From TrEMBL, chain A:
PROSITE patterns: 2FE2S_FER_2, 4FE4S_FER_1, 4FE4S_FER_2, 4FE4S_HC3. Residues 577-596 are annotated as: Disordered. It comes from Winmispira thermophila (strain ATCC 49972 / DSM 6192 / RI 19.B1) (Spirochaeta thermophila). PANTHER family: NITRATE, FORMATE, IRON DEHYDROGENASE. The keyword Cytoplasm does not apply. It comes from the Bacteria. Residues 141-174, 184-213 form the 4Fe-4S ferredoxin-type domain. The keyword Metal-binding applies. Gene3D superfamilies: 3.10.20.740, 3.30.70.20, 3.40.50.1780, Fe-only Hydrogenase (Larger Subunit), Chain L, domain 3, Iron hydrogenase, small subunit. This is Hydrogenase, Fe-only. GO terms for molecular function: 4 iron, 4 sulfur cluster binding; ferredoxin hydrogenase activity; iron ion binding.
Automatic annotation (TrEMBL), chain B:
It comes from Winmispira thermophila (strain ATCC 49972 / DSM 6192 / RI 19.B1) (Spirochaeta thermophila). Keywords: 4Fe-4S, Iron, Iron-sulfur, Metal-binding, Oxidoreductase. Belongs to the complex I 51 kDa subunit family. It is an enzyme of class 1 (oxidoreductase). The lineage of its organism: Bacteria, Pseudomonadati, Spirochaetota, Spirochaetia, Winmispirales. This is NADH-quinone oxidoreductase subunit 1. It comes from the Bacteria.
Length: 596, 418
C-alpha cells in the first residue's frame, strides 16, 4: 500500500498553495500558474542546481527553486528586483562567452538560451566578449559537438550517465575552464558514445546536434543519373507533424509520402514493411533457438545505439543478440537487390535514403557489415528534424498536403510493423507472429498490454503451446543494464535463465524518443507519440507481420523462406566486441577541426 | 613570549616521528583519558571546552560530534586539504606533530562510534603524506590505532587519501565527493554529512587543527581551554602571518588576540601598513583600521569578515592593489570548482577584467561591472566559495577604488607619494 502523501501549505507570491511534501519548488510554482525561468533544469532529469536562473526568495533567503523542496510554511517570492537583476546578470555573463551567431545556428528558434534572453529582456551585454576558440568535434558519424556553444549546464552529462549509463562525456578541467569532453582524450567518434543522441535532445543550446546530410540529399535529388528510394521509420509518422504545428502523436504518414514526392524522391517505400520482414526473420530465429534451447535469451537488435552499447559493455552477451539486421538495413538490402532487379535499375544508380527518428542510424548505415549485396544498404540517413528542414526549404505546406499512398512492392505494412517505434513494440509484434506460427492457431487478442507503457523494465510470461515464455522489455540503456545484469549473473552462477526473449531500445520511450525527433522531446511528449502508434495499429486491417501481403510476395519470389540462405546473406549480420577505452592512436582524432 | 602553547609544545623535537618524545610530552594521554569514559561523556567534555572548528566556519566541535548519527557506521574524516593561500598551519602540524592529529582523530572516532577514519590530504603535500603514513603505521604498532586500542574494546584505523588539487575541496561536502572518487563539487545541504556523508554513512569532517586541539581538552581539561581567549571563541589558535612583516611564520596565540599584537609577534610591519587580508583569499581586505580587531570568530564576523583559516597576509605601502586584484581573481577563476554558473562565469569575467587593467587595457566601467558581478555571485552562487568572492573584490574596490581608477587612467601603476 502506498503511503498517503503528506501535504504542506506554502505561499507563492502571497497566494496559499497546498502541495505534496517534498515537491520541488519549481514544480510547485507551476501548479500555482507561476512559471519560474530555468536553464539547466529539465523535468525529465534529476536537478543539479547549476545555473542559478531559477533563483527565488524563500523566507527572505535566495535559493535555487530546482533543488529546493517545499516545507510547511515556506513563503516564496518568485520575482523581485534582486531576482530579476541576478537572473539577467547570469545570462549576460553566459552570453559574454557565447558566440553571437544565432542566425546561423541549427538551434535558432529552438534555443532555450535565446528564449531566456528574450524573456528576461537582455538588451545589451555590458561585458567584453571573449572567444574560447574550442574545437568542434565532427568525428562521430551521428553527432557534432561544438564546445564553443556549450554553456556547460551538464544536462547532456546527466542523460548520458544516468539515463543511458553510457558515460561518454564528462566535465573536464576546473573553474572557469570547465568544459564538457570525452574521457581519456577520446572524441565523440572514438569514445564509448553510442550515438543515441539523447544529449542532443536535452541540450538547451546549439552545442550538440545531428551531423546533417540534407545537402547530400539535395545533390542526389538533382542528379538525373540517380534513383532516390526513400523509406520512413515507424516513429517518424507520429512526430514529424510537430515541426509544422501539429500535435504529437498525430499520424501524418500519407503527408510524408506526398512531401517526399514533392521533393523529388523517385520511389517512396516504408520501413514499416521491413519491420514486418524483420519479424519474419527474428520470430523464426526465436522459434529455432527456443526449439534447440540454445543462445537464449534472444535479444533484439533493431536499435543501433543499443548494439554499440552491447558491443562495448556486454561483449559476453553478444551471442544472444539476434543476428537480424534492423528494419532500416533490411529495407536497404532488399531495395538494392530485389527491387533493383525487378525494375532493372543497376544498384549503383540507386540512392537509398532513410528517414529515421534516430541519430545512431547514421552510424549504423556506415558500419562495414552493412553492404552484403556489394552496395551500401543505406546511403543517406536523415533524421526527422532534417526532413522537416527540407520540407520547409522547398516551401511545401506540410499541414495542407493531401495524403498519398506509398509505392507498391516494399511499402505495405501491418499494425505489428508500426508499433516497432514504441518500446515493447518489437516484442509485441514478434509475439503475435511467433504465437501463430508455433501454435498454428489464430490469436484471440493481438494486444499484449503487459509489454506496453513507459515503465523502464516490463516483464511478462506468455504461454506458447504449453511453454512458459518469459520476456522482458527495457528502454533507456540504464534499464537495459538492469535486465542484462540479471542475465549475466544467472549465467555466471549457472542458474536458470531469467528470460527467453528480451527487447532493448536505446532511447526512453523507444524510437519515438529517438535522438533525431522534433524538439523539444520530453518524456510526456514521447508518450503521446506512443499513443499515436498504438492508435494506428488498432486501425489497420492487417495487424500481424506474417499476414503482410508484400512480405509474403517477397519470400515467394525472392527470399524463399525465413532464415534461409538468401536471407542469411542479405538480412543478417554479426557483432564484434569493442574495447571501450582504446588508447592507441586513432586517425579519427586528427579530424577534430577548429571552428570554420 | 610568555603565554600558553599547546601544538607548538609538541613541535619542538627534531624528529617529529619520535614516538618516545611525543609520549614523554604527554602524547596519547588524551586518548587514554578519553577511552576511560563513555563516548557521551567525551562529547560532553568537548562541548564544554567550547572548541570551535578551526577550518574556518567556527562551528562548535562538540555539537558537530553530537549530531553524527551513530546508528549507521559513521566515518571520521580529517580535512587536510589545506588550500587557502597564506595558510600553512595544518602542514606544520602534520610535519611537526603528526601524532596529535592521529590522537585527536582517534578520540573523535571513539566519541562518534566510528571504526574508520580518512585523512584527506591535498595533492600538493606528497612528502607530508608519506610522513603521515609512517606516523599512522607507528601509532598502529604501539596500539594507538588498529584492533583493540590500548587494550580496550575500541578499534579504529586511519587511511590516507590524496586530493586532486582543488581549492573548493576544502569545503566538506566537496571533499566527501572527492573522497568517493567523484568530481570535487560541493553538495546540497541538507542532508548534512553528519547525517549522510561518505557512501551514505554519517560522516564527521574536522579540520586538522581542530583535531590536533582535541587531546588538549583531555590532558589539560576543558576549563583550561575556556580560560583562554574570549568566552565564545575560547582556546588557542594557530595564525599564519605572511607578506610584509619582518618575521613571517606560524604563531600560536590565544583567540581574540588583537591584530597589532599578532603583527608585533611577527616582527612588525615592514614599512607602512597599507592593507591586510584576514582569513584567506576569500576573506575581506582591510586597511590599517584592522589593527585593533580582535582575531576571533565573532569579532571578525561583526566586522563583515571571518577568521577563516587564521591566515593574515600583510601588504605594505609598496603594494599595487590592481595587481592584488588580478592575482586574487585569477585564483578564483582557477580554483572555482566550475559547477555553478554565477561562479564559473563570474570569476572568468572578473579575471578577464582585472588582467585587462594590469595590461593597461582597463576601462573605468570595469569597477561597476566587477561590483555587479560579485553581487550576483553573492546572491546566486551554489556554495560559500562563490558567495565569498564579494568580500575581497568588493573591499578592494571600496578601499582602493581611487588607486585602481588612477591605474586605469594612466594605464600603469602610479606610485604613492612619500
Amino acid at each position: 500500500m502506498a503511503k498517503q502523501a503528506k501535504t504542506v501549505t506554502i505561499t507563492i507570491n502571497g497566494t496559499p498553495l497546498e502541495v505534496e511534501e517534498g515537491t520541488l519548488l519549481v514544480d510547485a510554482a507551476s501548479r500555482a500558474d507561476v512559471e519560474i525561468p530555468t536553464l539547466c533544469y529539465h523535468e525529465d532529469l534529476s536537478p543539479r542546481g547549476i545555473c542559478g536562473i531559477c533563483l527565488v526568495k524563500v523566507n527572505g533567503e535566495y535559493v535555487r527553486s530546482c533543488i529546493t523542496r517545499v516545507r510547511e510554511g515556506m513563503e516564496v517570492v518568485t520575482s523581485d528586483p534582486v531576482i530579476r537583476e541576478t537572473r539577467r546578470k547570469i545570462l549576460e555573463l553566459i552570453l559574454a562567452t557565447h558566440p553571437d551567431d544565432c542566425l546561423k545556428c541549427i538551434k535558432h528558434g529552438k534555443c532555450e538560451l535565446q528564449d531566456l534572453a528574450e524573456r528576461l529582456e537582455v538588451r545589451s551585454i555590458p561585458y567584453d566578449k571573449y572567444e574560447r576558440g574550442l574545437p568542434v568535434d565532427r568525428t562521430s558519424p551521428s553527432i557534432v559537438r561544438d564546445m564553443n556553444k556549450c554553456i556547460g549546464c551538464g544536462r547532456c552529462i546527466e542523460v548520458c550517465h544516468h539515463v543511458q549509463s553510457v558515460g561518454a562525456i564528462f566535465f573536464h578541467n576546473r573553474g572557469s575552464h570547465t568544459i564538457v569532453a570525452n574521457a581519456a582524450g577520446q572524441t565523440m567518434g572514438t569514445s564509448v558514445c553510442v550515438a543515441c543522441g539523447q544529449c542532443v535532445v536535452y541540450c538547451p543550446v546549439g552545442a550538440l546536434y545531428e551531423k546533417e546530410a540534407v545537402e547530400r540529399v539535395w545533390e542526389a535529388l538533382a542528379d538525373p543519373e540517380k534513383v532516390v528510394v526513400a523509406q520512413i521509420a515507424p516513429a517518424v509518422r507520429v512526430a514529424l507533424g510537430e515541426e509544422f504545428g501539429m500535435k504529437p502523436g498525430e499520424l501524418v504518414i500519407g503527408k510524408i509520402y506526398a512531401a517526399l514526392r514533392r521533393l523529388g524522391v523517385d520511389y517512396v517505400f516504408d520501413t514499416n514493411f521491413s519491420a514486418d520482414l524483420t519479424i519474419m526473420e527474428e520470430g523464426t530465429e526465436f522459434l529455432h533457438r527456443l526449439e534447440k534451447g540454445e543462445r537464449l535469451p534472444l535479444i533484439t537488435s533493431c536499435s543501433p545505439g543499443w548494439i554499440k552499447f552491447a558491443e562495448t559493455y556486454y561483449p559476453d552477451l553478444l551471442p544472444h543478440l539476434s543476428t537480424c539486421k534492423s528494419p532500416q538495413q533490411m529495407m536497404g538490402a532488399v531495395v538494392k537487390t530485389y527491387f533493383a532487379q525487378a525494375k532493372g535499375i543497376p544498384p549503383s544508380r540507386i540512392v537509398s535514403l532513410s528517414i529515421m527518428p534516430c541519430t545512431a542510424k547514421k552510424f549504423e548505415a556506415q558500419r562495414e557489415e552493412m553492404r552484403d549485396s556489394g552496395f551500401w544498404d543505406v546511403d543517406i540517413v536523415l533524421t526527422t528534424r532534417e526532413l522537416a528542414r527540407m520540407i520547409r526549404q522547398a516551401g511545401i505546406r506540410f499541414d495542407q498536403l493531401k495524403e498519398e499512398p506509398a509505392d507498391p512492392v516494399l511499402s505495405s505494412y501491418s499494425g505489428a510493423g508500426t508499433i516497432f517505434g514504441a518500446t515493447g513494440g518489437v516484442m509485441e509484434a514478434a509475439l503475435r507472429t511467433a504465437y501463430e506460427i508455433k501454435t498454428g492457431k489464430s490469436l484471440p487478442k493481438v494486444e499484449f498490454a503487459q509489454v506496453r507503457g513507459v515503465k523502464g523494465v516490463k516483464e511478462a510470461v506468455i504461454e506458447l503451446n504449453g511453454t512458459q515464455i518469459r520476456v522482458a522489455v527495457a528502454h533507456g540503456l540504464s534499464n537495459a543494464r538492469k535486465v542484462l545484469d540479471r542475465v549475466r549473473e544467472a549465467k555466471e552462477r549457472g542458474e536458470p535463465l531469467p528470460y527467453h526473449f528480451i527487447e532493448v531500445m536505446a532511447c526512453p520511450g523507444g524510437c519515438v524518443g529517438g535522438g533525431g525527433q522534433p524538439l523539444p522531446s520530453p518524456l510526456k511528449k514521447r508518450e503521446e507519440r506512443l499513443m499515436g502508434l498504438y492508435a494506428e495499429d488498432s486501425a489497420l486491417p492487417v495487424r500481424k507481420s506474417h499476414e503482410n501481403p508484400e512480405v509474403r510476395a517477397l519470400y515467394e519470389h525472392f527470399l524463399k523462406e525465413p532464415n534461409g540462405e538468401l536471407p542469411h546473406t542479405l538480412l543478417h549480420t554479426h557483432y564484434e566486441p569493442r574495447d571501450p577505452y582504446r588508447l592507441r592512436k586513432n586517425p579519427l582524432r586528427e579530424q577534430v577541426s577548429t571552428p570554420e | 613570549m610568555n603565554h600558553a602553547r599547546f601544538i607548538l609544545e609538541f613541535a619542538v623535537d627534531r624528529d617529529a616521528f619520535d614516538m618516545e618524545a611525543y609520549i614523554s610530552r604527554g602524547g596519547f594521554m588524551g586518548l587514554r583519558q578519553a577511552l576511560a569514559r563513555p563516548p557521551a561523556k567525551v562529547i560532553a567534555e568537548v562541548k564544554s571546552s567550547g572548541l570551535r572548528g578551526r577550518g574556518g566556519a567556527g562551528f562548535p566541535t562538540g555539537v558537530k560530534w553530537e549530531s553524527v548519527q551513530r546508528h549507521k557506521e559513521p566515518y571520521v574524516v580529517a580535512n587536510a586539504d589545506e588550500g587557502e593561500p597564506g595558510t600553512f598551519k595544518d602542514r606544520y602540524i602534520m610535519e611537526h606533530a603528526p601524532y596529535l592529529l592521529i590522537e585527536g582523530m582517534t578520540i573523535a572516532g571513539y566519541a562518534v562510534g566510528a571504526r574508520r577514519g580518512f585523512i584527506y590530504i591535498r595533492g600538493e603535500y606528497p612528502a607530508i603524506a608519506k610522513g603521515l603514513i609512517k606516523a599512522v603505521e607507528d601509532a598502529r604498532k604501539h596500539h594507538f590505532l588498529g584492533e583493540k586500542i590500548l587494550g580496550t574494546d575500541y578499534s579504529f584505523d586511519i587511511s590516507l587519501r590524496m586530493g586532486g588539487g582543488s581549492y573548493v575541496v576544502g569545503d566538506e561536502t566537496a571533499l566527501l565527493n572527492s573522497l568517493m572518487g567523484n568530481r570535487g563539487y560541493p553538495m546540497m545541504k541538507p542532508p548534512y554529512p553528519t547525517e549522510e556523508g561518505l557512501w551514505g554513512h554519517p560522516t564527521l569532517v574536522n579540520n586538522v587543527e581542530t583535531l590536533a586541539y582535541v587531546p588538549a581538552v583531555f590532558t589539560k581539561g576543558a576549563s583550561w581551554f575556556t580560560q583562554i581567549g574570549p568566552e565564545h571563541s575560547p582556546g588557542l589558535k594557530l595564525f599564519c602571518v605572511s607578506g610584509d612583516v619582518h618575521a613571517p611564520g606560524l604563531y600560536e596565540l590565544p583567540m581574540g588576540v588583537p591584530l597589532h599584537e599578532l603583527l608585533e609577534a611577527a616582527g612588525g610591519v615592514k614599512g607602512r601598513l597599507k592593507a591586510v587580508q584576514i582569513g584567506g583569499t576569500a576573506g575581506p581586505v582591510y586597511d590599517d583600521r584592522a589593527l585593533s580587531f580582535p582575531l576571533d570568530y565573532d569579532s571578525l564576523r561583526a566586522e563583515g569578515g571571518a577568521l577563516g583559516s587564521g591566515a593574515v597576509v600583510v601588504m605594505n605601502h609598496t603594494r599595487n592593489m590592481a595587481e592584488f586584484l588580478e592575482v586574487t581573481t585569477r585564483f578564483f577563476s582557477e580554483e572555482s570548482c566550475g559547477q555553478c554558473f554565477p561562479c564559473r562565469y563570474g570569476t572568468r569575467q572578473l579575471e578577464f577584467m582585472a588582467r585587462n587593467i594590469m595590461m593597461g587595457k582597463g576601462k573605468e566601467e570595469y569597477l561597476d561591472e566587477m561590483r555587479e558581478i560579485v553581487t550576483t555571485m553573492s546572491v546566486a552562487s551554489f556554495c560559500p566559495f562563490g558567495k565569498s568572492v564579494a568580500l575581497p573584490v568588493g573591499n578592494v574596490l571600496d578601499l582602493f577604488g581611487d588607486e585602481i581608477r588612477t591605474f586605469i587612467a594612466h594605464q600603469r601603476y602610479v606610485k604613492e607619494a612619500g
